[in-house]
Amino acid sequence: MRALVTGATGFVGPRLLRLLDAPTVLSRSPERARQRLGPSVGPVFKWDPLAGPPPAEAFSGIDTVFHLAGESVADGRWTAAQKAKIRDSRVIGTRNLVLGMLQAAARPATLVSSSAVGIYGNRGDEELTETSPVASDFLAGVCVEWEREALAAASGGVRVALLRTGIVLGSGGGALAKMLPPFRLGVGGPLGNGRQWMPWIHVADLARLSVHAADQAGISGPGNGVAPEPVRNADFTTALARQLHRPAFLPAPYFGLRLLFGEFAQVLFDSQRVIPRVALETGFRFQYPDIASALRAILTVAA
């Protein structure tokens, strides 16, 4: 596989790069990316996702593109300006990437593009698979547009796989890095009543699933990038507290988090019981299928 990766310096990117052979990287800051990623990557090209397509030479010899780039939805309050950044980084960035792919002298055969389970919205106890209807809130709308731009590559004969990721857990960053401080102080707890379902995945499994989606010619369209055993928030809280040997009995009320995070707080309380049907039906084997084994592996490394 001759791969090109966007978003390589994010939380998932370095894990994916370890599974690839000298991949090409697109970055706003090539010098900084090269310093952070080290000698295991191939060429690093400068690309501003909002400014236009990547340079044509970036696609030379490339057969697979992994598209991870996008503004974090959890950084800062959702002001109008921040929501525009979240949308534009995904929608316009993907549009420009696909334009570059379609203009390449030799088009890549496969695009594995990130999406998110936010496309399903708040669905209570409903079991959600890749064929479930999508929602109409802000994040769902962003995901719908994001996926539409990625799927435009199919018009040029490119196979497009869309990985709808859940909460990505791993050491050294991601969602867990923000959760750990209060839990380590013994003041962690469930969000509200803790009944909401949390779709999650270990970062190592997400990187492996990305490569699986690239390798399996029969995978196209959406695939849920989540572990096969979603958990309720209260059960996740209990598992995390047990692994840290700390209590976890102080529920975080919606009102307080709304004051702290603004509109984004609602996302924390959404319930999404997402199942990775495509991954399972195409033979993918999760290294961390349950939350206890995932947290044990992550926190052992973090310790």
SSE diagram, text form:
Blueprint: E1 3-6, H1 13-17, E2 24-27, H2 30-37, E3 44-46, E4 64-67, H3 80-103, E5 110-116, E6 127-128, H4 138-151, E7 159-165, E8 167-169, H5 174-184, E9 197-198, E10 200-202, H6 203-215, E11 221-225, E12 231-232, H7 233-244, H8 254-261, H9 265-269, E13 273-274, H10 277-281, H11 291-302
Parallel strand pairs: 1-2, 1-4, 2-3, 4-5, 5-7, 6-13, 7-11, 8-10
Antiparallel strand pairs: 9-12
How would you portray this structure in words?
This protein is an alpha/beta fold and 303 residues long. The chain is 39% helix and 16% strand. It has eleven helices and 13 strands. The protein has a seven-stranded parallel beta sheet, with helices on both faces. Strands 6-13 form a two-stranded parallel sheet. α3 (80-103) packs parallel to α4 (138-151). The two termini are 35 Å apart.
Task: Tell me the number of helical segments per DSSP (H or I, 4 or more residues long).
Answer: 11
Distance between the termini: 35 Å
- Runs in which pLDDT lies below 50 for 5 or more consecutive residues are none
Given the C-alpha coordinates, what overall shape results?
Answer: globular
Over all CA atoms, what is the radius of gyration? 19 Å
> How can the largest sheet be summarized?
7 strands, parallel
Strand content: 15-25%
Strand line-up across the major sheet: 3-2-1-4-5-7-11
Average predicted confidence as pLDDT = 93
Helical residues, percent: 25-40%
- Kindly state the number of beta strands: 13
The computed structural class is: alpha/beta
List the secondary-structure elements in sequence, H or E: EHEHEEHEEHEEHEEHEEHHHEHH
